[in-house]
Design a protein that fits this description.
This protein is of the alpha+beta class. Strand 4 and strand 5 form a beta hairpin. Strands 1, 2, 3, 4, 5, 6 and 7 form a seven-stranded mixed sheet that branches. The N terminus is likely disordered.
Length: about 170
């Protein structure tokens, strides 16, 4: 199983590089993103951000393709598919986590009319409540998102990778 994840991670890395190189050299108008594509990509990332702020797991899930892959920070194993994403972000637990701040800065959007990437930075703060004890955390770092255009013209996240320092207790 680990070798599958290693191969999938390597494939993802090669795809990122290929997209960036392709985006840098794209001159054919049919291969570049349209204004409405960029707007749709930005809208999907904004739904992702506001879903977290609203505590709406369904809204967050709706921004992802069914077989999406998370590639978490600190070398954690890839999280493949919506069932695994649910367990990763919303495990059955008495602990309650609430996102209190989530800011995204988009530094780059590229790709073509079917596959796109977004590079940026994010700042997140959250509270964790467990057995009456409350802790406040925050973090910030880089992210890379790959999105695929759906048959209905909408964009969904297929891969999300982020890197940041260890979480910081306030």
């Amino acid at each position: 199983m680990r070798s599958f994840h290693t191969v999938r991670s390597a494939t993802f890395a090669m795809l990122c590089v290929a997209l960036m190189v392709r985006g840098l050299g794209a001159t054919d108008r049919q291969e570049t993103l349209s204004g409405s594509d960029v707007a749709g990509i930005r809208a999907d990332l904004e739904r992702y951000r506001t879903g977290w702020l609203a505590g709406d797991a369904d809204a967050v899930r709706k921004t992802f393709a069914k077989e999406a892959v998370l590639m978490p920070h600190h070398g954690l194993a890839p999280v493949v598919g919506m069932a695994a994403i649910n367990e990763f972000w919303w495990p059955a637990s008495t602990t309650k986590t609430t996102i209190t701040r989530f800011e995204q800065t988009i530094d780059e959007i590229g790709g073509d009319r079917k596959l796109a990437f977004v590079r940026g930075r994010s700042e997140v703060a959250w509270t964790v409540e467990d057995q009456g004890k409350m802790q406040h955390w925050h973090n910030g770092g880089n992210f890379m998102v790959i999105l695929g255009k759906q048959a209905d013209g909408t964009w969904l996240i297929s891969h999300l990778i982020w890197d940041d320092p260890p979480n910081q207790l306030e």
